[in-house]
Fold this protein.
Amino acid sequence: MPRRHPAPPPSPLPQRDGVDPVRLRLPPDPEGRWATVRDHLVARYGDAVGAARVEEMVRAGRFAGEDGAVGADEPYTAGRYVWFHRDLAPEERVPFEVGIVHRDERIVVADKPHFLATTPRGSHVTETAQARLRRELGLPELQPAHRLDRLTAGLVLFVVRPGDRGAYQTLFRDRLVRKEYEAVAPYDPAVALPVTVSDRIEKERGEIAARRVPGEPNAESRIELLEHRGGYGRYRLVPLTGRTHQLRVHMCGLGLPLLDDPVYPVVQEPAAGDYGRPLQLLARVLEFTDPVTGEPYRFESRLRLRPLRARHEPDDQV
């Protein structure tokens, strides 16, 4: 049997603005490069934030072990856990609220607006659905069971207690959750619908766009037309797999790129603070059997995409 490592100890530092501290486990040092914990921290983070800033954080007691602040001359001990809060750049608030569709002692089903990331990543840390809900609901251990792209609006399932998270994540891993999306895109009568698209999608680290490539299919989507008017259509999209940007790639591959998509078919740099043209993609339905209680659930988003209009009519916003 594989050797099981003990769970990390709880953090001695509280959350800040709904964001957990960074947890670091000091690595082995067979060559004896680091006499003190401070030496390792300077070597590890000095290039990113500057050695002087790391030294300042150590002096200020910003790094903590299980027994309190890490001293400037504390001997290095491999395997020890250290926690700290990163210096976070100010983030512009996404000017839309996170709706609550359902809440009980186990789960929260949230309506995430466009432009808000699900979890902290990159430059989006405090302005995420997870951090906001932790603060607003007073649930410091809240975590998502899955993720929704930052530009996509709609339903996200969060788990209240860490011990329950694995059961709900397994639902998504094993494709036991029925997800239904709604989208607005051009209408082309030459595209025969409904259709099931099955192909292979890959996304390289560091690249913005995913792409279709030859090979064994790993992505499958059901696409249906709900209505059309003035050259635009409203579509129901049912993903049968969960590849990154899968629905956007499949719609673009049909010659029906989603309205206001800044990535497909051409990557564009959106202006900072421009919230006027959200991607017309909405995670509208989540349907599953609760793995804890056995109760069947079906949740529907309360958000709406813009109504279909003729091309010469002004657009409404979400």
Summary: The chain has a mean pLDDT of 92. The chain has two domains: 22-84, 99-300. The helical segments are 37-49, 51-59, 129-137, 162-173, 246-253. Residues 99-300 form a domain with the Pseudouridine synthase fold (CATH 3.30.2350.10).
